[in-house]
Amino acid sequence: MLQAGYAVQAPNYSETVVFGEEPICLQSLFRKQPVEQLDAGESLFFESDPARHLFEVVEGVLRIFKIMADGRRVITGFLYSGDLVGVSLKNHYLYSAEAVTPVKLRRFARKAFDEAVSGSPELRPQLFARLCDEMAAAQDQMVLLSCKNAEERLCSFLLQQLRRKREQERSASVIDLPMTRLDIADYLGLTIETISRTMTKLTNKGVVSSAGRHSIRIAKPGTLAHLAGDGDECHDGNSIVVAFDSTGRRH
């Protein structure tokens, strides 16, 4: 169980970093920082903790979430290799971050980050663009939760994973989903039972089929896009395999 006010004890890194040349991208600020590791299930920071550092995910998957007053967990996103964690204009973290898988990451002092961005005409627009991307993602999530039914939400999630994978590998056929079905349910605002029923419905429609204990085959990506409400942007000739980790239960 998460404990409010608990903070991960970090090594005492210097607040300033000297670079050999002007960094040209936000990720370059992190390159000289040591790599740290988190075990699956280990917390990186908690909501409302002082935002003293930013982090770059080097390897693995993080989930970011909030805990409601009644104890319910709301997952607001999953972060992957190359993503930055803790970018905010606030002095405290706006959410909690926890490792889904074993994670490797680098940290950078918030004060040094702010100074580097303020002094670089190349980095300022990059930070602004990243904040705009986060706002757009938040708006997309609001639309998903407020306007889409269970089937549309799940299809949108699977389609989102497909897009992310194909940015790295255009002809990708396997998408790894290391998060549990309970994680997916908490991200989509559904119950795990609804996730299971909806998956069965998609199977009966021929959109997906079983490909092993923890995997499904998306036989009709175009139909998946249509059911997600995003139009027919994929051809059904390209089947996709989605691998699932073990499922959780909602109590």
From TrEMBL:
GO terms for cellular component: cytosol. It comes from the Bacteria. GO terms for molecular function: DNA binding; DNA-binding transcription factor activity. Signal peptide: none annotated. Keywords: DNA-binding, Nitrogen fixation, Plasmid, Transcription, Transcription regulation. Residues 148-222 form the HTH crp-type domain. InterPro entries: cNMP-bd_dom, cNMP-bd_dom_sf, Env_Response_Regulators, HTH_CRP, RmlC-like_jellyroll, Tscrpt_reg_HTH_Crp-type_CS, WH-like_DNA-bd_sf, WH_DNA-bd_sf. SUPFAM superfamilies: cAMP-binding domain-like (SSF51206), Winged helix' DNA-binding domain (SSF46785). Pfam families: cNMP_binding (PF00027), HTH_Crp_2 (PF13545). Residues 38-134 form the Cyclic nucleotide-binding domain. PANTHER family: CRP FAMILY TRANSCRIPTIONAL REGULATORY PROTEIN, FUMARATE AND NITRATE REDUCTION REGULATORY PROTEIN. This is Crp/Fnr family transcriptional regulator.
